[in-house]
Structures are given as structure tokens and as C-alpha cells.
Amino acid sequence: MTDWLSIGAIFLVSVAAALTALVLLALYPRRPDARRVPLIDATTPETVFLFDGETLVDASSTARALIAGSSLRGPPWQRLMAFLARHFPDIEARLRTLPDQGRIVLETGQGGALTPLAVVAELHSGLVRIRLTDPDADHSAAVDPLTQRATAEELDLLRATVGLTPHPVWVQTATQEVVWSNGSYLALAVQSGEELSWPLPKVFPLDTPRLQRIRVVPPGKAPMWFEIVTAPYGDGIMAFAQPIDALVQAEGTLREFTQTLTKTFASLPIGLAIFDRQRKLALFNPALADLTTLAPGFLVGNPTLFDFLNQLRDRQMIPEPKDFATWRKRLTDLEKASSIGQFDEHWNLPGGQTFRVIGRPHPEGALALLFEDVTLQMSQTRRDRANVELGQAIVDSVSDAVAVFGPGGDIILTNAAYATTWNHDPMEVFAAGCQDIGSLAQYWRNQSSSTPAWAEIESVIRGTAAASDSGWPIRLRDGRALQCRVVSLTGGATMVEFSTAGQPDNAPVEEFGTPLPFVSQRRSGGG
């Protein structure tokens, strides 16, 4: 019996606790789920938005129409802020203060460029409710006034944009009639002498919808060039004309400059080949075809640098390498050296011709090759060199020592007998830069007995005194006697001749003087 009473008491206590908890739960105020509370009436004519942060939770039909009519692409929050920013530039900054204020009311002033607008922003359970109203609107109208006004503002903006565009814009039907245009088109039509009537005058004779250039010549004025771009519009096209007078003028200047260069290059005897950055022949002159014997048709075809040089190789107009690998390496080296302006070679061709080929870099990675026929110059140089060698051989065959000086007193030639007589190499004199008569006269003094002859000889060579017909006797330190004679040559040159006057006597030989530091002594057995 006692157990049943205990169980019954426990049951009653449990039921009482549960009932108490239900009563307290019913009495405790709960935060409603804002997403389920109908804060926006679906039938309301007002423009109302409900945002959770920047995410659109709900919106009235007029609000959705306002967002849909915006030309901006992006989420609803950005579209709404773009619309409101035209009326309230600081709208986003004001909305960030909503958590502190709870409610914000914004109204535009009267008499502005835009119609009045009122914005009421409220915070409901963490959600932002934005309501837009037009104080002057007739809410009995069938169309939402805010949506209508947004559309009107968008239309005004588009009209202003097209009207203020400095480029002509027009609409042309499939029958070539101009049915709409902006102000720039009409101004150009009036400037061209057209009469404004309906349909509108056709300033640009468009015969194809593709991109094209058209010239308009107003009466008494310079021609005007336009580039026409078209786009399909209904059964016709919408056309846009962009002025390109500066571009056409620049192209004409470039064309004239190119023609001037072509005429200049045509008169040059040097062959010119200019390759672009892709190493294709972009420009050449007639001399190139004449020198290389390449067909003009081949050159006009814009061959590559490799094809160009390969054709020269086939015509034996380039030095023949030992193998093809060497040939390819030669091409690579030529291109690299030319691109930095360090290619300058003489090509001795199998036919006996000699070409001087110069490679020079040009702007934008281009490359220029210049071909000059230097066969005559090289032949003349070889002949001159042969003549010099022959003259030297003739002078070396003379038994007397000979030294020839130029008009300025610089030594230009000596023979083998001179080197033997004076015991020094004239080439070392040239290398040391001591080829003046003053330096050599000092050396001669050091190698001979004291005599005033050297001063007189130096004066004669410098042209300040006349030569003695009898010459001057000279005695060297080793006892040899020489007879010095100065002879005037053509062109202001002077020749000093040292002939042997007799054998060394038994007189005591004075010690040699100190030779000049630039002289290389080559003592013989008697020295």
C-alpha cells in the first residue's frame, strides 16, 4: 500500500512540474523569425525592400520592377544603391548607422534636377526594411510612380548621352532611309549643305554593313574622313561614324615618306634589304636585285632571311661554307651580329667579285643588310699594296742608306741599308711614335762625332734652309765615314741619303753615345 502511494505522489509531482514549465514557456517573450513574419504585404502598392545584410529577402512587386528596370548589372543591393545614390550620394554611409538609430528618414529637396524622393529605412529583427515613396506622386495611377520615374530618369540619361556624343549616330532602314539621328549627325548634314527634311538626309552613302571609310566634302571646306561602324537594329542598322582625319593624314604622311625613301634608295648603288621582326623582307631597292642577280619577283614575295641567303648561296653570291651545319651557324651568327650592329664582312665570291656586307639593327626588331660591290676598291687596294711592296723592294736594292720624310718632317720610308748603317729598325720607330726628324736627328748625333751638319740637315728637311749641293761629311763613332745628301722629292717629300765615303781608319774610336730609348740596337760584328 505504501509503495502505491509513493508512486502516485511522484506522478503528481511530475505532472505539476510539466504543467508549470509549459505555462512559463508560454509566458516567456520569444523573438519572432523575421524571415517568416510577413513584413511586406504582397498586395501593397508601395515600393518596399527587405534585406538581410546585402541579400534581398523579400520585395514588393513595384520594388522588383524597379530593380529589374535598372541598366546596372549586379545583385539587387548594388542596383538599389546605384539608383538611390543619384538622390542621396551618402546613402550607404547613412545606412551603416541604422543599427544605432533604428530608423532613418531621407528626403530630397525641392527644385532639383530630379523629382522628390523619400526613403524610410528601419531595422526589424536584424533585417533592413527600406521603403521608397514619392511625395508628389498620384498613388491612384495604375503604374508604380517610382518605377515610372526610374524609367524616365534612365531614358533622360540615355538621351543626354546620345545627344552629347560628338560622333554622328543614326538609324537606317532596310530601304536606305535615315529615320533617326543624333545632334552631331544633323550638324554634319547642315555643314554638308543638306536640307533637313523627312526622311533625314543621307550624309554617308552606306552600301554595305561592313566597316568602311567614307569621305565627306563640305562646300568650301577641307574633306572630312570617317570610319563607319554598323550594328543590326530592327530590320535596318544603327551606324556610328568616328572622325579619323588625323589618322588619314598620318597615313598619307607615312606613305609620302615611304615613297621618298623608295626614290632615295632607288638611286643608291648599294643594295639594301630590310627585314621585319619576323625576319621577312619588307623593303628593298633595285640595286639589291642588280648586285645579287635575284629575281624581283622573288624579292617582292617577302622571303624570309633564310630563304634570301639560301638563294644567294644557290647563285654563288655568298662565300661557300664547308658543310651545311657551318652554313646554318653562319646564318645564326649573321643575324645575332647584325641585330647589335656588329656585322661587317667582306665576301670574296667565286666569280671574282668582292662584296662588303653590313648588318644594322632597326627599330622594333627589324634588321637591315647593305650590299656594296667593292671589287674595284679591293683591286685598287691590292694594286696599291703591290706598288708599295715593289717600291720598297726597289729601295731595298739600293746600296746606300736612304730615309724618306714627308712634308711635315715625319719619316715614311727607309731601306735595308739604312737599318744596317744606323743599327736600328725603322718599324720600331713607327710603333714607338718617334718618327719625327727631330728625334732621328738626335739619334744620329748620338751615333756620330760632333758636327754642325745635323742641325743644317734638320733645317733642310723642315724646309727652313736650302740643301747643300756638296752634302755633309759624317763620321760615325765606330770610325766609318759617311757622306750625307738631302734630295727634294715631289709632293714636298725629302730624301736623306747616306753613302759610304771610305773605310774606317786607325784613329782611336770614340765611345758610342747613348741611343734613344725608342731605338732597338742590332749591333753587327764590327759594332
How would you characterize the overall build of this protein?
Helices cover 38% and strands 23% of the residues. It has 527 residues and is an alpha+beta fold. The chain has four domains: 47-152, Beta-Lactamase (2-Layer Sandwich), CATH 3.30.450; 165-243, 2-Layer Sandwich (Beta-Lactamase), CATH 3.30.450.20; 257-373, Beta-Lactamase (2-Layer Sandwich), CATH 3.30.450.20; 392-502, PAS domain (Beta-Lactamase), CATH 3.30.450. A hairpin with a 2-residue loop joins strand 4 and strand 5.
- CATH fold name of the largest domain: Beta-Lactamase
Strand order of the largest sheet: 2-1-5-4-3
Helix segment tally: 17
The level 1 CATH classification of the largest domain is: Alpha Beta
pLDDT below 50 for ≥5 consecutive residues: which ranges?
A: 28-38, 502-527
Number of strands: 20
**CATH architecture assignment of the largest domain:** 2-Layer Sandwich
Radius of gyration: 53 Å
User: Sheet bearing the most strands, described?
Assistant: 5 strands, antiparallel
Helicity level, as a percent range? 25-40%
Core attributes:
single chain, 527 residues, alpha+beta, Beta-Lactamase, 4 domains, 5-stranded antiparallel sheet, 17 helices, 20 strands, elongated, disordered C terminus
